[in-house]
Structures are given as structure tokens and as C-alpha cells.
């Protein structure tokens, strides 16, 4: 092998090594998947009008299918830290009162939120379902009482982000149990989530991302 060819091969190896050390950390910093979880609390206010979609084919006042809109706030702790404003839309079906259920979609808009130690504005989406069932719980004296318990389950995902959250991507799951305050039973609103997030290169954020978060 000639001296020239040997020197060329050595130069190529050194160049590849240099590129590897300069490029790989940057890629890892944006594509690394981060897992986390947390809890949330929420406040809701009804936004009229309630739209009746069906009377379920009878004259009963407590049977219907309705479209409902609510506003409010969601406050997150855990891997997501912050309070966002909410638009919540759901279908409530009571055609069989004992099997009340429905579907919901909620958009949470954060003007200031921290996700995995990065701070910016972001938009988060919930999609899922809920049901209301009579369940037996214990009152303050330990005696059994039947109450209407609401459970929710669904998926969450980040739609867009700005600032240090530009390029954010993330999907996860959400679950909740809500026990009302009745007959001396303290109300409990228990909500938890688990999510995995990663950050694309901010320069790769799509125009759709930028448009959705433009007003945050």
C-alpha cells in the first residue's frame, strides 16, 4: 500500500470521528425520548347553549344525547408543570340512565409551562371517554353508601410548542375517578397521566405547529 493511500485512509478515519463527536450529541439532545407522569386538577364552567341531539325516542326528562361545551383551567404537576386555559367539548348520552356515558375532546392552551425542564408555551389535547355508574363507597363512619361515580380514560398529546418547547412531540394516557360530595362523603377528584415526550430540531417545526401556537 502506498504512503499516499495510507495517509488518505487515516485522514478519512479522523474526519469521520470528528463528525461523529460534533453531530451525534446534537441529534441525541433533540431525539431523546423522556418518560414522565403526574397529576392534574381542573376547574370547569358551562358555556351555553347545550345542544340537544336526541331525546332517545321517549318523553322522559332524564334521557337525552346532548352536546356540551365548557371552559376552565387545568393545573398540572409532575413532568408537566403549569396551568392552562381549557376548551372542553363532550357528548353526554343518558338514553339508558344507569349506563350514562360519553366522549370528550379537550384542548389545553399554556402560555407558560415547563415540560421536562424546558419552558415555553404549548398546546395539549385530550381525547377520551367517560362513564357514570352507581358505586358503593364508605362514608366518614365506614358505612356503605351508593353514589354516582364518574370515571374517565383517554389519550393525551402535545400539538405544538414555542420557546424551548418548539418542536415538542409527546403522547400519553390519562385516567380519572371523581366521587361527589354527598351524605357526608368528602368529594374526591383524582386525575393522573403518564406521557413520553421528545423534541424535534426546532428548525424542523412545521408551519401547522407554528400556526397553532402563534397566539400563545
How would you summarize this macromolecular structure in one to three sentences?
With 216 residues, this protein is an alpha+beta fold. Helix content is 16%, strand content 59%.
Largest sheet: 8 strands, antiparallel, barrel
Please give the radius of gyration in angstroms. 25 Å
Secondary-structure-derived class: alpha+beta
Q: What's the arrangement of strands in the largest beta sheet?
A: 1-2-3-4-5-6-7-8
Based on DSSP secondary structure assignment, what is the total number of beta strands? 8
CATH superfamily of the largest domain: SO1590-like
What are the main properties of this structure?
alpha+beta; 2 helices; disordered N terminus; 8-stranded antiparallel β-barrel; AOC barrel-like; 216 residues; 2 domains
Structure description:
It is a single chain. Helices cover 16% and strands 59% of the residues. The chain has 216 residues and is α+β, with helices and mostly antiparallel strands. It has an 8-stranded antiparallel beta barrel. A hairpin with a 7-residue loop joins strand 3 and strand 4. The N terminus is likely disordered.
Amino acid at each position: 500500500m502506498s504512503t499516499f493511500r495510507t495517509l488518505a485512509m487515516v485522514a478519512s478515519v479522523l474526519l469521520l470521528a470528528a463528525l461523529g463527536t460534533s453531530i451525534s450529541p446534537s441529534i441525541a439532545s433533540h431525539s431523546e425520548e423522556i418518560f414522565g407522569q403526574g397529576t392534574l386538577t381542573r376547574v370547569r364552567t358551562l358555556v351555553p347553549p347545550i345542544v340537544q341531539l336526541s331525546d332517545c325516542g321517549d318523553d322522559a326528562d332524564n334521557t337525552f344525547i346532548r352536546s356540551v361545551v365548557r371552559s376552565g383551567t387545568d393545573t398540572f404537576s409532575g413532568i408537566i408543570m403549569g396551568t392552562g386555559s381549557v376548551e372542553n367539548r363532550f357528548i353526554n348520552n343518558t338514553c339508558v340512565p344507569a349506563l350514562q356515558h360519553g366522549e370528550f375532546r379537550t384542548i389545553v392552551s399554556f402560555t407558560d409551562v415547563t415540560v421536562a425542564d424546558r419552558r415555553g408555551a404549548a398546546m395539549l389535547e385530550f381525547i377520551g371517554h367517560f362513564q357514570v355508574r352507581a358505586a358503593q363507597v364508605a362514608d366518614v363512619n365506614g358505612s356503605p353508601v351508593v353514589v354516582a361515580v364518574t370515571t374517565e380514560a383517554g389519550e393525551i398529546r402535545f400539538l405544538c410548542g414555542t420557546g424551548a418547547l418548539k418542536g415538542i412531540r409527546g403522547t400519553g394516557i390519562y385516567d380519572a375517578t371523581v366521587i361527589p360530595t354527598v351524605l357526608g362523603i368528602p368529594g374526591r377528584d383524582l386525575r393522573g397521566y403518564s406521557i413520553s415526550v421528545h423534541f424535534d430540531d426546532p428548525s424542523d417545526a412545521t408551519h401547522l405547529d407554528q400556526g397553532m401556537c402563534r397566539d400563545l
